């Protein structure tokens, strides 16, 4: 099962400057592990010490925020697109 992952510019140093990758995983947790296998070091930028996504990063599956789905257990299907989006704050 192949999932397209859109990587934000600050994390492209781990992906050899690629903005899009194709990885495998049946859910977000497995996808993160697959990303780590292909791009060593990226997981520590994506996840905290407990293995949960960092607060300042948002994950979207086909434009749906995983916080409103099943979080890191959100299931993925072949052809899904996962976007990793840094949170933006301002005032």
UniProtKB/TrEMBL annotation:
Gene3D superfamilies: 3.10.20.30
SUPFAM superfamilies: MoaD/ThiS
Pfam families tied to this protein: ThiS
Domain of life per record: Bacteria
InterPro entries per the UniProt record, alphabetical: Beta-grasp_dom_sf, Mopterin_synth/thiamin_S_b, Sulfur_Carrier/Prot_Modifier, ThiS/MoaD-like
Protein name: MoaD/ThiS family protein
């Amino acid at each position: 099962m192949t999932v397209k992952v859109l990587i934000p510019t600050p994390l492209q140093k781990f992906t050899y400057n690629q903005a899009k990758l194709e990885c495998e995983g049946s859910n977000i947790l497995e996808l993160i592990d697959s990303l780590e296998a292909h791009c060593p070091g990226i997981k520590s930028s994506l996840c905290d010490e407990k293995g949960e996504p960092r607060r300042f990063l948002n994950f979207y599956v086909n434009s749906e925020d995983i916080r409103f789905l099943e979080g890191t257990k959100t299931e993925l299907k072949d052809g899904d697109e996962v976007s990793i989006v840094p949170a933006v704050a301002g005032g």
